[in-house]
Design brief:
Elements: E1 2-3, H1 14-25, H2 36-56, E2 63-68, H3 71-84, E3 92-95, H4 101-112, E4 116-119, H5 130-136, E5 141-147, H6 159-168, E6 172-176, E7 193-197, E8 208-213, H7 238-253, H8 255-272, E9 277-278, E10 289-293, H9 299-305, E11 309-310, H10 326-330, H11 335-339, E12 341-345, H12 352-372
Parallel strand pairs: 1-11, 3-4, 3-5, 5-6, 6-7
Antiparallel strand pairs: 2-8, 7-8, 9-10, 10-12
Helix pairs in contact: 1-7, 2-7, 3-4, 8-12
Length: 374
């Protein structure tokens, strides 16, 4: 099978597998224990933490990275923990309708709990309207949350401009940088909290991290032993942490090579899929995410027919729900247009030959559908 769903997850890098192997097979020590094998595990986790911080880029030294079970936990912790530590007069949350479900659903939960929520609209290109953002962010706003690279349509939000508006009102800024790590620069200096995940950068599933700026106070989400810096309870997995660290080291080392490869694949895909309409901004985007639509094509049927290729119609967490993508709805697509949209994600281990083969199969199946539609 040809894999073209890099936004859902990425293939595990061989180097990551090898780095994790000793911590799965023989190095079983609890990293929170005081004896030798425990201290060795703790030291390996510290190395991994520094590698993730390095991959995040300049500005990360001004905060602390806490390992979590994934980006969903990190986002929940950031939103719930920040709001819990803010005064009642700062209970207003501002975010975007195109955010990942872990942010949108958490924000709505907080709204039910009595907080005030505003969703600032995006344009047809998927980019936030900064004038409306400025109007929404007031002296009652406690938190502004925005994703850097959108997981469904790949557009890049102007986090630095949103941060400027937030900081004028002394509001905190949370950035979901899951799809950005190792792919586009993360404006860490503009953020107070940043979520990242291992399995989007050729690392293992089950581990992510929340970066919190020094001086920012948030409440713990999990209570117990406070093993992770006194802020997050639960025994860390050295294997997962080491895997994340190695994946982060690789994206730092291969950043330019990976970007050049993705650029080449993007050009191949765009040249091949002429006639398909791009969803989201052409200029302001990460090019490893190609979300396109074609009239008279049903994406669910296309995915089931082209079994030799793994691709999607949107976010993996919403697949099978039968609901129209909230991201595509937010950029103004109607139900018919959303149903005709597919997302192709490619990256480090996608060969040009495989991409061309996959696109050929998708185009053939799409043409058959259109022919039958009359």
């Amino acid at each position: 099978m040809i894999y073209l769903d890099y936004q859902a997850t990425t293939p595990l890098a061989p180097e990551v597998v090898e780095a994790m192997r000793p911590w799965v097979e023989t190095n079983f020590g609890n990293p929170h224990s005081p004896y030798t094998i425990g201290r060795e595990a703790a030291a390996a986790i510290d190395v991994a933490r520094e590698r993730v911080l390095a991959a995040m880029g300049p500005g990360s030294e001004a905060g602390r990275l806490y390992f979590t079970s994934g980006a969903t936990e990190a986002a929940n912790w950031a939103l719930k923990g920040a709001i819990a530590d803010l005064p009642d007069e700062r209970s207003h949350i501002v975010t975007l309708p195109t955010e990942h479900a872990c942010v949108i659903d958490t924000a709505h939960w907080l709204e039910v709990e009595g907080r005030v929520l505003d969703l600032v609209p995006v344009g047809p290109d998927g980019i936030v309207n900064l004038d409306e953002a400025e109007e929404a962010i007031t002296d009652r706003t406690g938190l502004v949350a925005a994703m850097l690279v959108n997981n469904e349509i790949g557009v890049i939000q102007p986090i630095e401009e949103l941060s400027r508006l937030a900081r004028q009102q002394e509001a905190l800024v949370f950035c979901d940088a899951v799809q950005a790590l190792g792919r586009v620069p993360i404006p860490v200096d503009a953020c107070d909290m940043v979520a990242v995940s291992a399995h989007k950068v050729h690392g293992p599933k089950g581990i992510g991290a929340l970066w919190i700026r020094d001086g920012v106070e948030i409440e713990p989400l999990l209570h117990g032993g406070g093993q992770e810096g006194g802020m997050r309870s639960g025994t860390l997995s050295p294997a997962l942490c080491v895997g994340f660290g190695e994946a982060a080291r690789l994206v730092s080392e291969r950043r330019e090579a990976d970007a050049a490869h993705v650029e080449k694949l993007w050009n191949v895909a765009r040249e091949t899929m002429q006639g398909w309409v791009l969803n989201g901004s052409f200029e302001q985007r990460y090019k490893g995410n190609l979300n396109v639509r074609l009239e008279s094509v049903d994406s669910a049927r296309l995915i089931s027919e082209v079994r030799e290729v793994a691709f999607s119609s949107g976010s993996a967490c919403a697949s099978g729900s039968g609901r129209r993508s909230h991201v595509l709805a937010a950029i103004g697509l109607d139900e018919r247009q959303a149903r005709s949209s597919i997302r192709l994600g490619f990256g480090r281990y996608t060969s040009e030959e495989d991409l061309r083969t996959a696109l050929g199969l998708i185009l053939e199946a799409a043409q058959r559908q259109r022919s039958l539609a009359g």
